[in-house]
Amino acid sequence: MQLRGAAVFVIVFVPVMAAAQQFMPTPSGPPVDPNTRFEVVSVKPVADTSGPLGRFIPTPQRLEYSGLPIGWLLRQALQKPDYQIVGAPGWIDTDRYTIMAKAPDGTPQAAFTTLLVNLLKDRFQLATHLETREQPVFNLVIARTDGRLGPDLKATPADCQATIAERNAAAQAAAKGGGPPLPFPPLPDLNAPTAPCGSARLLTGNVAVSGRTIAQFVTTVSDWVGRPVIDKTGLNGLYDFTLTFAPEGRNAGPLGQTLALLGAPNQAPPADPNVPSLSAALQEQLGLKLESARGPVEVVVIDRLEKPTPD
User: Fold this and answer.
1) How many CB atoms lie within 10 A of CB 30?
2) How far is Cα of residue 251 from the mean position of the Cα atoms in its chain?
3) CB-side exposure of 157: number of CA atoms within 13 Å?
4) pLDDT in tens, 228-266
């Protein structure tokens, strides 16, 4: 499958940035009208839910969501992972739907999440409200009292930082209509020991990252441990690192699932039962440590979500 133009940002960005978050961060851009909607929408339930998963292909103008549970679209619309969503019915991850939708011509990428929110409101009767609740969290801190980091956590080289800055500037210019963005890195090889400049492999138990902040990484760790992780390391700037650990009963990770949805040929390597736990790996390989704590967590409460009437 060959991807070009603006669609590259959306599809490549899913596994690189959103794998552990369970959703794709909303692209930056000018403010979006909250009433922006797809102009044509078709929603059909899938009778046979025992077969293989279907396809997910988003572009700035079109959504193709074929034979998949509605849960991912809900997480994307709410911009929240499972541990920050309360009251979602169990069928969101079992019942499958095929949704085809077309946005009005000229709809910007930044409107994608708004389009999904309104689709779910119109067709699934979605209603929500926000609450802040006191919940268990983890603080991520530097493990050693002398501040020394682990052998597999290093500052991103200056030339790679410059490349990332150039890509970001081009993407921002493109969002403002100033030309096409630079191409993003290809999907990382799931078996390579390191990641290309500016890319990330975020499989549960098999991580290789280039040019990522620790503050971004805690979102990944949050999904692994099922609760918010707060960056208390004080580490700023961009880092390269690798991390190998036992998944502890988790699946191969959202990245593996996302790649399958996109039709990518790569498959995750099998987990090694002899590698350390996540907690031990963080300390041994990165020099970081998780400390249990409690803190305020913003959650989205699902007040209403109903199965739609098919077209």
Assistant:
1) 10
2) 16
3) 6
4) 999 999 999 999 999 999 986 544 344 444 444 434 434
